[in-house]
Amino acid sequence: MSGKIFPTPAAALEGLLFDGMTIMSGGFGLSGNPESLIPQIRASGVRDLTVISNNAGADGFGLWMLLESRQIRKMISSYVGENKLFEQQYLSGELELELTPQGTLAERIRAGGAGIPAFYTKTGVGTVVAEGKATEFFEGEEYVRETWLRADVAIIKAWRADPAGNLMFNKTARNFNPNMATAGRVTVVEVEEIVPEGTFDPDCIHTPGIFVDRIVLSTINEKRIEKLTTRPKEITQ
Asked: Which of 1, 6, 25, 196 is an S-S bond match for 12, by CB 3.0 to 4.6 Å?
């Protein structure tokens, strides 16, 4: 068995968690959430976390669990409007928030993985997003400087992995997960399936194994639907 494969989510996180650390958590809404690893972080009791994630889960699920247990001190996020607990903690002053435009958040994470400390973007110029940040003009247009994001640990969810840690993601679960896999000092991946070495066509690998440190089979694969919209079936004559 590969040295990257761990028997349980708790074992995959062993020795990595500490108070005050920064964690990147993959997912967009409830798609691609590391469903099995988040409960283990809660069970560890680690506190004062800075969490980088597009959003903070939904009622009773995902990162909501760490908000409910008051383990998160700061969120660096893009979309927070659907999480009422997030809203309450932020408005009450319990939770610090660094709100980042979604494309900028993705690029800051990608930059962290690529070793690029800063870059310039037009997004946010002239708004509160640019407050306190350097700006420069390029070809007559103003741009705001954004800095990279990196983490002590990145927790992500993939569809399949081989023993070397090469990953494939399933459809929209690909969202922030591949970029986050490159930007963690240690990257822990929960997967739905571990396949034998040599299974993947190299052209079909979404994240190379060099970015993956630990792999564990998911114990939770609920894949909840955050908002279900239906309509009556159309009947044709």
From this structure: 6
DSSP class of residue 171? G
**C-alpha triplet 68, 62, 13: angle, nearest 5°:** 95
User: Which amino acid is present at 87?
Assistant: E
Tokens describing residue 75: 């969120």
**Could you tell me the pTM of the whole model?**
0.92
End-to-end alpha-carbon separation of the chain, Å? 59
Contacts of 107 (CB under 8 A, 6+ apart): 119, 121, 146
Q: How far apart are CA 185 and CA 226, in angstroms?
A: 31
pLDDT at 1 > cutoff 50: no
CA angle 97, 103, 105 (to 5 degrees): 35
Query: What is the domain count for the chain?
Result: 1
For residues 14 and 60, which has the higher predicted lDDT (pLDDT)? Answer: 14
Q: Identify the domain containing residue 63 by its residue range.
A: 9-217
Which SS3 state, helix, strand or coil, does residue 140 take?
coil
Reported confidence tier of residue 18, pLDDT bands at 50, 70, 90: very high
Cβ of 204: how many Cβ atoms within 10 Å? Answer: 10
Residue 115, number of CB atoms within 10 A of its CB: 10
